[in-house]
Amino acid sequence: xxxxxxxxxxxEQPADEDGGELEARTPEALDERLDEIEAELDEAETExxxxxxxxxxxxxxxxxxxADLPEPDEDEEDADDPRxxxxxxxxxxxxxLDDQRGPYAEDAVEEIEGAKSTxxxxxxxxQGEDEIADTVHSFLDTVGETLDEEFTAAxxxxxxxxxxxxxxxxxxxxxxxxxxxxxxxxxxxxEAADDLTTGLDDAEEWDDLSVREKLTVEGFYDVLxxxxxxxxxxxxxxxxxxxxxxxxxxxxxxxxxxxxxxxEEHCIESLKRMGAPEAYDVMEERAQKRNKPxxxxxxxxxxxxxxxxxxxxxxxxxxxxxxxxxxxxxGEIGSTESTQPVADRLVADNETVRSNAARALGLIGxxxxxxxxxxxxxxxxxxxxxxxAAWALNQIGTENALDAAREHADDRSxxxxxxxxxxxxxxxxxxxxxAETTA
Length: 439
Description:
The chain is mostly helical and 439 residues long. It has 22 helices and no strands. Helices cover 67% and strands 0% of the residues. Among the domains are: 22-68 and 80-100; 105-208, no CATH class; 305-438, Alpha Horseshoe (Leucine-rich Repeat Variant), CATH 1.25.10. Helix 4 (105-121) packs parallel to helix 7, helix 10 (234-245) packs antiparallel against helix 11 and helix 19 (370-379) runs antiparallel to helix 20. Residues 1-130, 418-439 are annotated as: Disordered. This is PBS lyase HEAT domain-containing protein repeat-containing protein. InterPro entries: ARM-like, ARM-type_fold, PBS_lyase_HEAT.
C-alpha cells in the first residue's frame, strides 16, 4: 500500500493493545454486557452460579476501567458521564449479588457470638437474669431440634449460659454446612440466633433502671426510717446518716449515680467532713478537672499521692481562687515535699494566696520555712498576711521560729502582736521547763 492510500476495509474492528476489540468497549456495548450479567444474576440458583456472575462482573469492570470512553461536555451542566453511569450499574449489581448470596452458617455463628458478648458483658437485674436464662434455654432447645443434638447449660448464671452457646457454635462449625445443600438448616439456625439476640435485647438490664431504682436495689435507702423517708429528698437524709455512721461507700455510690448537682454537692461535703481515704480515687479524678470541692476533700484525706496533681495548680499566677483552695489542701496534707512550691507563693500578687501559703507552711512544719516566713512577717504590706506568717511560725514551734515571731510584740497589727505574745509565752514555758529539768 502506497503512502496516502486508505486502509482496506476488511470488516473487522481494529484491536487495542490488549487484543480486545474497541467496539466491545463502547458505552453501548458495555451496557449490554451489564444487561446480560443482570439476567445471569436473576437466574442464579447456587453459590457456583453466583461465583460465575461475580467473575463476569469483574471482567466488565476491568473493561470499563480500560475503555477510552467519551468525556461529558463541560459546557452542559447536566451532561451525561458514560463512565460514571457504567460504574454505578456495576456497584448496584455487586450489591444485588451480595444480597443474593447465603445465608451461611458463619452468619449464624457470628450472631451467636454477638449474643454471647451481650450475655457476659451486661449487668442484668434480678428480673433480667430470669429472662436471659429463659431466652437461652429456648434457643438451645430450638437449635437442638435443628441439629438433632442436645444442648444444656450447666447453670443459669451468665457464664454457664455462655458456655452452652459455645457448645452450639462448636457444633455448627463441625457440621461444615453448605449454603446450597443445607440452606434450610442454615436458615433455621439464623432465625434461632436472631430470636436469641432479640430476647437478650428485651431482657431487663441494670441500665434500664432509674437512679432511684438502682439505689433501692443496692440498699441505699435501707438506713431510712419511716419518719426520715418522708423528708425531701430522702437521698440527702440517707447521706447524712451514712456520714454519722462513718460509712463512705454508699455516699460514693450515690455520687456516681446522682445526676443532681445539689446531691453531688452534699455527697462531696459529707466526704470532706469524713476525710475518708476510700474517696481518694474518685476525688483525685475529679480534682484533675480543677474542681475545687474535690481538692478540698483531698486535703482532708491527707494522701501524699495527690501532690503530683495539686502542685501544678499553684504554679505562677494562675486562678487565685483555685490557688487558695489548693494551697490550703496542700497544707492539710502536710508533706515537706510541698515546702518549696508553697514558699514560692509567699510573693504572689494576691494577698489571700500569700496568706494561705504562710498558713500552709505552718501546717507542714518544715523548719526550712522559718526564714521566708520571718521575711514576710517583717516586709509584707498586708497585716493579714503578716499575721498568718506569725501564726505559721508558732505552728512550727522551734526556738528559732518562736524567736522570729516574738520580735514583733510591738507590731502595728493587733493580730501580729497576739501571735508574738503566744510565741513569747511558748518560749518562756520551754525555758521554765528546761530550768526545772536542770534543777
